[in-house]
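[Solved] Which block belongs to which protein?

Original post:
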Amino acid sequence: MDTLKAMQVFVAVVDSGSQTAAADMLGLSRSVVSRYIAELEAWTGARLLHRTTRKLSVTPAGLETLQRCRAVLALTTDMQSAVAVPETTPQGLLRITVSTSFGQMQFAEAVAEFVKRYPAVSVDLVLLDRAVNLVEERIDLAVRISHELDPNLIARRLTVCRSMVCASPDYLRAHPPIRRMEDLGLHNCLTHSYYGKTLWNYVLDGQPSSVAVGGNLSANESTSLLQAAVAGVGVVLLPTFMAAPLVHTGQLVALLPAVQQRELGIYAVYTSRKNMSAALRTMLDFLAERFPPEPPWDQAV
């Protein structure tokens, strides 16, 4: 028996005047309230309540028990208040998972800034190109780039992930011009093993479409494709958070600016708002500030 709960139910029944009212007040069924009362009576060895169809009254033993139940519940509340120190300063360990490419290109720098600002927080950064079960792998926060999120998790939208087709100046000088998406069929396209390996999707004049692509290099991680593109191996479709800084420095050239590539959301995902640590709450606010709705890397193009 949950003795404290039974005491709470007993006090609620007496104060409200009926088991039905106590059930409504506590969010329990009437049968559960009756069971708690019966268990408390069995535990004390005395009848605590007289019950009739019209009236409920407290027995002499019930009055004695009621006084002591109130004292125990008050002591419990005092104890909780005495030892519960509100966590207002961010501290402790945060385990965060993020994709390898976003982690390397954008998130690692953000985490470095965060731990400098909040030195009492330790971050265990896990770079993975797969969806992680947050509960099983003890992850506090996941940063996910997607348009399909687990409805059982809480997601806070941070910013947008856009993509661009690009290539190095050396590659473009040595190959036919690229004026339309269809021209990519004549080029060596560097493709991701899991996303867009044979088809690149896009939107032109509001209409979704796709183009068949292929080439002599594919990889399961985007950073390798970025490096190959900079080396002049071929044309690549990359998130702007990776490609935009290199376009800004002239190492890559953005192609087909009139063509809109598929957009995805970038979200901070966690399991529950209940008992959220100050460290996690502060990290969420920090990320919302660091990655606004219009991403800073797109402004560099």
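(Second protein starts here: sequence line, then its structure tokens.)
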Amino acid sequence: MTSTDRTDAVVTTGAPSRPPTAPHGEVGRGTLLGFTAYGLWGLFPLYFDVLRPAGPWEILAHRILWTLLFCVVVLLVVRDLGWIRPLLRRPRLLAGTAVAAVLIAVNWVVYVAAVTSGNTSEAALGYFLNPLVTVALGVVVLGERLRPLQWLAVATGVVAAVYLGVTGGRVPWVALTLAVSFALYGLTKKKVGVSLDAIHGLTVETVVLAPVAVVLLLVVGAQGGLALGQHGAWHTSLLVLSGVVTAVPLLCFAAAARRIPLVSIGLIQFITPVLQLLCAVLLLGEHLPRERWVGFGIVWLALVVLTVDSLVGLRGARASRRDLPVDDCPR
């Protein structure tokens, strides 16, 4: 499920976005693209599971390199290279994108390691917690002010994390790392601005990570653990296709975000961890003890509170616009 620019999809602490002014057909197309993106991300556990016995570091390296190749091919085909030279004259944006690349790489490798080691349910928990962590970062780092329901949601999320740590006998590091790394990734993208389109940002991030990916493949190969080409044509093809698998849902999301409001995206996003959890329990044979289900229930309660707050805020914003004099309406 991990990808770039997805963090804009979380339920944010600021004012809700303006309802779309696009034609009804565009809104419907955007909704379909949103469901496609989050549905594909939700099915990622099944994809990464079949990549075994490749380890998480090798999968990370392949994902970086083949995604970079995919992006380069797309950019060459559509002749979209004019943004590169202006970008090179913006060191702050380049530095911020490099930081974002490191954060998303951490997220990717932890997620793949969780899936391939049979901890998909904890990975799903991480993406359930992600909106709550994002809201908390808005307060701590950006100084944003939360509404009462948002405070309640964040506090409930903290209770869930503490409960899961106490009852499980350990801190749920996988879930927390996924939630925090992706929230920090989104914060970094917000701080450096949204100057880059989705495919441009993904291209730059994979360029930054490409040398690391090459080193990882060399190290894994030197240790005799390289799986590429060792387990049949089907397995090799799946490793190569990891670039397309990474980029396609991202591009679907980017297209959806231009057509439907942020609140709609924020609601659709919960499809991903729900599907991940279903994959873990129904298809990958993971067993969740009763305590884990209770913890998930507390997290879901927090997300319900956060969603209700978001919908109430959207309704209030619409009512305020209706009450504005004609000359004061935003254009």
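Accepted answer:
You had them paired correctly. Confirming on the second one: The chain has a mean pLDDT of 84.
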